Amino acid sequence: MEVIVKENYEQMSRLAAEMIADLVRSKPRSVLGLATGSTPVGTYKELIRMHKEDGLDFDQVVTFNLDEYVGLPTTHTESYRYFMNDNLFNHINIRKENTHVPDGLAKDVTASCTEYERMMVEHGGIDVQLLGIGGNGHIGFDEPGSSLASRTRVKTLTKETREDNSRFFASIDEVPKYAITMGIGTILDTRRVILLANKESKADAISAAVEGPITAMCPASALQLHPAVTIITDKAAASKLTGNYPAEPHRLILK
Ligand code: GLP
Questions:
Q1: Considering only CA atoms, which residue is closest to atom 10 of ligand 1?
Q2: 127, 143, 164, 234: which one is catalytic?
């Protein structure tokens, strides 16, 4: 695991965007695994800037998002499909048909999860997976207790996650109780992972994920089993780490 501690959120976002842009430049048909939540928004803003000002080309890029709420139509402003269109896809030259988000309205959810896994394989697998982290150590919507071998499926959201995410809804009662999420096994199959975390509210989760034991009770700790993980934090999210971590990665190129 490579841990990079940046001064602030802007620097974290710039580094993550540079790493993704390097990959897209060297492999125009890159398959990107994308995340929602407030954390990756700065990275998406920087990728949009690189597209507009430097001509970063997404024409051949394919994306798969980690997760989606069950029961929200894609027109709902809190659905993850809406979030991705609004925060990234509508502002770059990606083909909408190349963007994939789990179908939260699928009639046969099990079949649609199996199909999601099949499509990732058909596209050659995910080159780089961007992740945030929940205050309880979840990645995607793989809540504590998720099998470390899990694949895309429906998960029940914990009370803590619904409370954390209620800030985006009118009230906690409107936060969906279930979500479809890539599994931890799915995430471990990606070629490279970039996990972003800022603010003190993530310090315990980062400490457990990086320096704690591998346990299903902190799903992000499973990333210790992945051969190519870069964790990028700000000072606050790194404040409970005991190791001494650099501010720069030892390589930028993601080939
Ligand atoms: C949600 C998402 C996760 C995200 C987490 C943290 O639960 N499913 O992918 O990492 O929220 O969100 P934020 O970045 O807003 O703190």
A1: 132
A2: 143
Domains and CATH numbers, the chain: 2-234 (3.40.50.1360)
- Which among 69, 103, 214, 227 has a CA at the least distance from the CA of 149? 214
Burial (0-12, 13-18, 19+ Cβ within 10 Å), 240 = middle
Strands 31-34 and 67-69: unpaired
- For the stretch 178-222, pLDDT in tens is 999 999 999 999 999 999 999 999 999 999 999 999 999 999 999
pLDDT digit string, tens, across residues 50-76: 999 999 999 999 999 999 999 999 999
Question: How far away, in angstroms, is 136 Cα from ligand 1 center?
Answer: 10
Protein residue with least CA distance to atom 6, ligand 1: 134
Q: Is 52 exposed, middle or buried (0-12, 13-18, 19+ CB in 10 A)?
A: exposed
**In the structure encoding, which two tokens stand for residue 12, read together?**
């974290």
**pLDDT of 251 strictly over 80:** no
